[in-house]
Specification:
alpha+beta, Immunoglobulin-like, 2 helices
Length: 192
């Protein structure tokens, strides 16, 4: 009788776990498919102080094997006519994750100190121009996937971009706090 009770309790636990719903498949679930995901936002923005950051995917869905069309904007909305910002090679970062494979797509950046002048009400815009990187320690499937991304040949999947703009309004040595405005968008790549 005690064994039967334990079995029923275990069965009930498994049934309850199976009936639970999740917004997206669990990471590492190799059976996850692009159809299991719903695109939530192809445009997002964040505001901090006198700056607005926008992150945009031109489409909700792209064809497999081709590029994607993403861009970021930074707009100054303060009281001055112009303002200088200080940043690495670009103030914009486009790191992303392909969720069906649980692959991170890194976004490297050269780090010289560059000054850009923003004019009030005129957004600075930059298109996504590719990303990715791997080491010889990564598995072959990840390396092959990353090589495709680096060649702007996105494979079928569900991609989430956790983009951000990172910059200062005074040279960093002056102790000025930096801005890091973040936004998240997503899109699908499907076989057509």
């Amino acid at each position: 009788m005690k064994r039967l009770l334990h079995f029923l309790l275990l069965l009930l636990t498994l049934l309850l776990a199976a009936c639970g719903t999740a917004e997206e498949p669990a990471n590492g679930d190799s059976s996850a498919s692009v159809e299991d995901y719903t695109v939530k936002a192809t445009e997002a923005e964040a505001t901090e102080g006198d700056f607005i950051y926008r992150l945009v995917s031109e489409k909700e869905e792209y064809a497999s094997g081709g590029p994607v069309e993403l861009y970021a904007e930074l707009e100054y909305i303060g009281d001055l006519e112009t303002i200088d910002i200080f940043h690495a090679a670009s103030p914009f970062y486009f790191p992303m994750e392909e969720k069906t494979r649980s692959y991170e797509i890194h976004y490297g950046m050269e780090e010289p100190l560059i000054t850009t002048t923003l004019t009030k009400g005129e957004p600075l815009r930059e298109k996504y121009s590719g990303s990715g990187g791997y080491s010889d320690q990564d598995d072959d499937a990840y390396i092959e996937f990353t090589k495709n991304i680096m060649n702007k040949q996105f494979l079928e999947g569900y991609y989430v971009v956790e983009g951000y703009a990172d910059f200062y309004t005074e040279p960093p040595e002056n102790g000025q706090p930096n801005y890091k405005l973040q936004a998240e968008i997503d899109f699908k790549v499907v076989d057509k």
